[in-house]
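hey m, so remember when u said the tokens were messed up on ur end? i reran from scratch. heres the input so u can diff it against urs
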Amino acid sequence: MARLILVRHGQTDWNRQMRYQGQSDIEMNETGIWQVEQAAERLASEKIDFIYSSDLKRARQTAKIIASKHNMTEAIHESPLLRELNFGDYEGMIFSQMDRKYRLIFSADPSWRSSGPHVRVPNGESIADLGARIDEFIETLEQHKLEETVLIVAHGGPLQVLICQLLGIGLERWWQIRLSGASVSILETYPQGTSITLINGVSHLK
């Protein structure tokens, strides 16, 4: 498998408002575009051979801005497998608007973290469901050569899950990987396994 550069999309208004965004197709705001432009400068000197992106607008915008530094805007491969977790009935809501029992799942207290990857929001997905999508995406990554560098632009959830799966970490640990908006992470993959060179790099945003 190739060297992987992972980038989370920049800020949207829903991020700023702390709304559950999920698969709602929200564009980046001005701050998000600025963040991604800084990430693009950070990656301008990197060799990039292939680009994958979630097919949601905020990720596609991010991928195009970065790809423009490499004359690769027409070479972006969009994939629905890289979409954010589907939050079902709670997409667009803020925490206080959710049913009490689901607040306990989605809050930052230990209940979400200890409830396991199979908890599913009404009409949405579980982390295990997201993991199945990312497993399918990894099969595509396995077609790449060790000497290649692949850029993957997506959302916090799928990138956290991808890191867990490549490192052999159980999905119950996904929440322990923090990825900020427009952050850069780099993974080196080998036949023996995967190592992290950079995680949640945001120095370009300061």
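this time it looks ok to me. The chain has one domain: 3-88+130-205. if urs says something different then somethings off w ur setup not the seq
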